[in-house]
Predict the 3D structure of the following.
Amino acid sequence: MIFPIGDDQVKGGHKPILAYGLIAINVLVFLYESQLSNAALGQLFYEFGAIPSLIFNGDQLYTLMTNMFLHSGIKHLLWNMLFLWIFADNIEAIIGSLPFLGFYLIGGVAASLIHAAIDPSSTLPAVGASGAIAAVMGAYLIMFPKSRIKMIFLIIFRPFHIPAIIFLGIWIAQQLISGFTPAEPGSEGARVAWWAHIGGFVYGVVVGYFIKKFHPYEYHQQNYHAREK
């Protein structure tokens, strides 16, 4: 199995307090979830998860935001937090903590809206930070295309690097293929909100373009190979 463990990190800039704070919040919420019975957990998801049919009826609109702090299992949480840890701090270092928080939350809302628009009659709650994190990854692709992603191959435990543009390009291609491919009912693929990922990523690409065009962060680009995390 191959998975990412780090990237070239921006040297200087704002401290990534909120990026790491979001990880802490998600972990704390999951610890609360783990104390609940199956029935109580299901009730929590139906109350705070994003249900397309309710959203398009104007009900439970707050779930467009609350759903991104819930996770369906430990694997779901760990993958999301790994990607948030790798990609979010660089963006916060450039744009600042409060702008990053706004970008992240709006990205999560946009992702949930896209998911709901694809299947507006669905009564299943969608939960997870994946849409907001996809927005972070989209912005990262535009802002740091020359960055390198550190990967590890579990069999040999020897890290290697690949360009961010390749890693993120493969990732979004996988989401698009899965989004356009009908999944078997009850399969693992059918339980994934692929279009939330795609919608969040597109939002991040657009915002990343405007940040790169109008934000004076060129001096950071000369330094982002200086440290690895």
Summary: Residues 2-228 form a domain with the Rhomboid-like fold fold (CATH 1.20.1540.10).
